[in-house]
Amino acid sequence: VSTTDNDQAGQCLCGAVTFVASVQANQPHFHACHCEICRRWSGGPTMMVSASNVSFTGEDLIRRYASSEWAERGFCSRCGTNLFFYLKEQDHYEMSVGAFNSQHDLSLTQEIYIDSKPSGYSFSGNHPRLTEAEFLASIGQGPG
Ligand SMILES: [Zn+2]
Ligand SMILES: [Zn+2]
User: Fold this and answer.
1) Which residues touch 137 (CB under 8 Å, ≥6 apart)?
2) Residues around ligand 2, an ion, CB closer than 5 A
3) Which SS3 state, helix, strand or coil, does residue 128 take?
4) pLDDT per residue over 116-142, tens digit each?
5) Structure pTM?
6) Spacing, Cα 40 to ligand 1 middle (Å)
7) What is the dihedral of CA 125, 127, 129, 135, to 10 degrees?
8) Main-chain dihedrals φ then ψ at residue 16, nearest 5 degrees
9) d(CA 13, ligand 1 centre) in Å
10) Rounded (10°) CA dihedral 20, 16, 13, 8
């Protein structure tokens, strides 16, 4: 499997923060998380693209909120745009789908915390939909 990456640009709503991030070029995809933290953070499901080589301009305007002991959520302090989920130990960014300038070549390949999803909306498509327990097991963590 090729791991060639593809640089993609994005920005916050007000444009004070811009970024370039490498996403998988051969199968660009994102996942949606329905957990309570993500819903409160974004006002709905949070949709994220796994990224590498992330660089920012306007980084002084980015605020990082520690949503857990292992992760931070970044947003523009001027306009409130949600920019990323950051795993501290792995030094890994998951970038917000909506912040990219072009989103048309990204496909939804997984939903997680499906058992937390409110009943009033759902995504179409035939892809894995993992419960909290199934997701935690898939990353080697127990419940809680
Ligand atoms: Zn902004
Ligand atoms: Zn979540």
Assistant:
1) none
2) 33, 35, 38
3) coil
4) 999 999 999 999 999 999 999 998 876
5) 0.90
6) 19
7) -150
8) -70, -30
9) 5
10) -10
